[in-house]
Design a protein that fits this description.
By secondary structure, the protein is α/β, with parallel strands linked by helices. It folds into 4 domains: about 80 residues, Beta Barrel (Barwin-like endoglucanases), CATH 2.40.40.20; about 45 residues, no CATH class; about 240 residues, Nucleoside phosphorylase/phosphoribosyltransferase catalytic domain (Pyrimidine Nucleoside Phosphorylase, Chain A, domain 2), CATH 3.40.1030.10; about 90 residues, Pyrimidine nucleoside phosphorylase-like, C-terminal domain (Aldehyde Oxidoreductase, domain 3), CATH 3.90.1170. It contains 18 helices and 18 strands. The strands form 5 sheets. A 6-stranded mixed β-barrel has the order 1-5-2-4-3-6. The protein has a 4-stranded antiparallel β-sheet with strand order 12-15-17-13, sandwiched between helices. It has a 3-stranded parallel β-sheet with strand order 7-10-11, with helices on both faces. Helix 12 links the parallel strand 10 and strand 11. Helix 3 crosses helix 4, helix 4 packs across helix 10 and helix 9 runs antiparallel to helix 16. The two termini are about 45 Å apart.
Length: about 500
């Protein structure tokens, strides 16, 4: 059937979608969420069908993904035909019944996700099934390989290539902004791809974007890495393992993440990493809540890395409170600039040099942590960070005070005397997001206290920054309601929190 293209002028967010009049859909024999093939000027794509009433019968309305893929202009005459459901649907149904997925089945599923042949309902069925059944190590391996082979890869022709990743789960974890320049300043290669926030107040890409552009192409990333030895770029702009971004769109509203191991390892494999340290923040409000659970998960990463030819080691790190004092993109960028000179929060410096030290030890360097700390305190790491900032298009002379933060501020005061005995990571994240982070770069939270600190009644324990007054007010009210910093004497505070008969607020922190 030939139909005229109507360009809607907006994107669906990844999946190729078209809209047909309901009578035209009936003539084609397709239903909502079925697939059709669109042909134009010798090119073709598959698209998911939406159906509308009172659309002209000679029109097919196109979302940007379809129009851009075929370079279709308004009013162009295009061929539209129905297609059979992809084989991968049968593979997903088999997995729903408890079967295992083989190599060819997994590659077919991932190819269909990337091409848009699977709709979000079908992807959600796969995600939900894998969440309940868990992947075998073989399935994780083939999902990782399939994700890499359906995307772009970074070819540096250098070895070793070092990398670092954090599972996330604690606010304020700006460690990568220190680890990358430490490692690169010592002559090693570390091409760091980073995520944006999913439910946290800032991902590494959000933090570093305050200092330099992060939306680089693979070729631009390669140029920066060959020039400086390192980079900090947003993985979403690179088409490295593109299936992962489409899967995350389904995982987020479900608050489940069964693909997180192949997702992480696919990104590392795609940039050619040979040695990777993975950080597991461990604590009550973190993703990893205890050491035993962390040890079990670590073995899965190590085994999968071995099958991929990557030397993986895991660090279980203290995750009972935010890292450093700053939470939110601009506040964290400021704190990172202070820390890279060796003057920042002790916990941030200790964690960054410990992770960098593990990487150095993995490639045969003795006393890795001491060497990493010297690179930090000597100014070598700071010089390298500024070199990377400049290579990515930022200002290498930027100072912490040059980074603007929200002009609206709310102070939260202690209501009692004592010590800080508990800080709720998830509550801190909720407050920072209520203030506008990460979308508003200047929004966030600055903690004036850490665990064990002595506090007097009336002391400022937290400052909330926002770019808009109403967001500052809302975040302040939320802080008073959630009371994220518990102060008292260890012997007298036994009730940590009362759980009323209502559903919990907020989602767990997800960040890759």
């Amino acid at each position: 059937m030939k139909l005229k293209a109507r360009l809607l002028g907006f994107a669906s967010g990844g999946t190729g979608i078209v809209v047909l009049d309901d009578d035209v859909a009936k003539d084609l024999g397709v239903h909502p969420l079925d697939r059709i093939r669109i042909r134009y000027n010798g090119k073709e794509v598959l698209a998911i069908v939406n159906v509308a009433k009172k659309l002209p019968r000679d029109i097919v309305a196109l979302y940007d993904e379809v129009a851009d893929a075929l370079n279709i202009t308004e009013g162009a005459l295009i061929d539209v035909e129905p297609v059979e459901p992809p084989k991968s649907i049968a593979y997903i149904r088999n997995k729903l019944r408890g079967g295992r997925l083989g190599k060819e089945e997994i590659f077919e599923i991932i190819r269909d996700i990337v091409s848009g042949a699977l709709n979000e309902v079908e992807i959600a069925a796969l995600v939900t099934t894998l969440h309940h059944q868990r992947m075998t190590i073989e399935e994780a391996y083939y999902f990782t390989k399939a994700m890499v082979e359906t995307g772009e890869t970074l070819k540096l022709d250098k070895r070793p290539i070092l990398d670092k990743h954090s599972l996330g789960g604690i606010p304020g974890d700006k460690t990568s902004i220190l680890v990358v320049p430490i490692i690169a300043s010592l002559g090693y290669t570390i091409p760091k791809t980073s995520s944006r926030a999913i439910t946290s107040p800032a991902g590494t890409a959000d933090r570093f974007e305050v200092l330099a552009p992060v939306n680089l192409t693979v070729e631009e990333m390669k140029e920066v890495v060959l020039k400086t030895g390192g980079c900090l770029v947003w993985g979403g702009s690179l088409r490295l393992a593109p299936a992962d971004d489409l899967i995350i769109r389904v995982e987020y509203p479900l608050a489940v993440d069964p693909f997180f191991i192949p997702s992480i390892m696919a990104k590392k494999h795609a940039v050619g990493s040979t040695h990777v340290v993975i950080d597991f923040p461990t604590g009550r409000d973190a993703k990893i809540q205890n050491i035993r659970g962390g040890e079990r998960l670590a073995q899965e990463f190590i085994e999968l890395g071995s099958r991929l030819g990557i030397h993986v080691e895991v660090a279980l790190t203290f995750g009972e409170q935010p890292l450093g004092h700053a939470v939110g993109p601009a506040l964290e960028a400021r704190e990172a600039l202070v820390a890279i000179s060796g003057k920042g929060p002790v916990d941030l410096i200790n964690k960054a040099t410990s992770l960098a030290g593990i990487l150095l030890n993995m490639v045969g360097v003795s006393n890795g942590r001491e060497i990493a700390l010297k690179a930090l305190t000597s100014g070598k790491a700071e010089a390298k960070l500024r070199e990377i900032i400049e290579a990515q298009g930022g200002d290498p002379r930027i100072k912490p005070e040059d980074v603007p933060v929200g002009e609206h501020k709310v102070e939260i005061y202690s209501k009692r005397v004592g010590r800080v005995i508990y800080i709720n990571n998830r509550a801190i994240a909720q407050i920072a997001r209520a203030a506008g982070a990460p979308r508003d770069k200047g929004a966030g939270v600055y903690l004036h206290v850490k665990l064990g600190d002595k506090v007097k009644q009336g002391d400022v324990i937290m400052e909330i920054f926002a770019e808009k007054g109403y967001k500052a007010e809302n975040a302040g009210k939320l802080a008073e309601e959630l009371n994220p910093v518990l102060i008292g004497k260890y012997s007298e505070v036994m009730l940590l929190k009362h759980i009323p008969a209502k559903p919990p607020v907020g989602l767990p922190i997800l960040e890759r």
